[in-house]
Automatic annotation (TrEMBL):
Coiled coil: none annotated. Residues 21-65, 138-166 are annotated as: Disordered. This is DUF4890 domain-containing protein. The keyword Transferase does not apply. The lineage of its organism: Bacteria, Pseudomonadati, Bacteroidota, Cytophagia, Cytophagales. Keywords: Signal.
């Protein structure tokens, strides 16, 4: 009789322990779902999903783009200030376009292309012929790398590892 009672008590404790584990597992899954939902909502509300960082303002994007162009193209101070104005105008127009269309990215393609074409025309007026040719070569190289990465079906980090090996 004692053995039977002891077996029942042990069985009841085992069932309780097992059910507690599944509850913790369910809670963990639910928490992960909520975090994913928050990340998605954050992306819509002006954040992207890379580490849930805030997107940069048009001014910050223009500053960064100008800095890169100064380094890679060897711009003068006058050219740098004019390029910064162009980059800022483009970044503000792009942000307004994204705000206008929201998640409907297909609708803004033509307008986005118009903004980029205008920006390229303005760049031609500011840069020397040699600088603009160098800029175009850099753009083509960037496009080729992106195409190769897309065709490889790999993310940026994996592609870099493979690209550096060869």
């Amino acid at each position: 009789m004692k053995k039977l009672a002891l077996a029942l008590v042990f069985g009841a404790l085992s069932v309780g322990a097992v059910s507690a584990q599944t509850t913790e597992k369910k809670a963990k899954v639910k928490t992960e779902r909520n975090e994913t939902k928050i990340k998605r909502e954050g992306a819509v509300a002006g954040k992207h999903n890379r580490g849930n960082k805030e997107m940069k303002s048009p001014e910050e994007r223009a500053d960064r783009q100008t800095k890169v162009m100064v380094e890679k193209l060897g711009l003068t101070n006058d050219q740098a200030s004019r390029i910064k104005e162009l980059n800022l105008r483009k970044a503000q127009q792009m942000q307004a376009l994204k705000a206008k269309y929201g998640e409907q990215r297909k609708g803004m393609g033509a307008e986005m292309q118009d903004i980029k074409n205008t920006w390229h025309q303005d760049l031609k007026n500011v840069l020397s012929a040699e600088q603009y040719a160098k800029f175009q070569a850099q753009q083509e190289e960037r496009k080729a790398k992106m195409k190769a990465r897309r065709e490889a079906g790999k993310g940026k980090k994996e592609f870099r590892k493979d690209y550096q090996k060869s």
